[in-house]
Amino acid sequence: xxxxxxxxxxxxxTGGSLRLSCAASxxxxxxANMAWFRQAPGKEREFVAGVTWTGLSTFYADSVKGRFTISxxxxxxxxxxxxxxxxxxxxxxxxxxxxxxxxxxxxxxxxWGQGTQVTVSS
Length: 122
Known about the structure:
7-stranded mixed beta sheet
């Protein structure tokens, strides 16, 4: 069983940047598809970005493509989300997730962190 802990959230102005980190323990992430999801107040949780266990493929929601970059450091068992050009629509609780699968699917994620709050001021 893997435990995931997000960090790096906070308050940032419109146009600013943040880098979120997700530290995994209990099980290496080298064989896991990894992803970031987010949930804003009154909205359902949505997929933001993902990276396959091979590190060869990344996936992004249209709303963040070109602004966010997902990356992983398997040696450190850490997942990252670099967020640039932030706007108010990015305000949400961001969750790290893992799926120990060989094939990619956004429906396979069943290990979750506690979330970290990102607030973008206008």
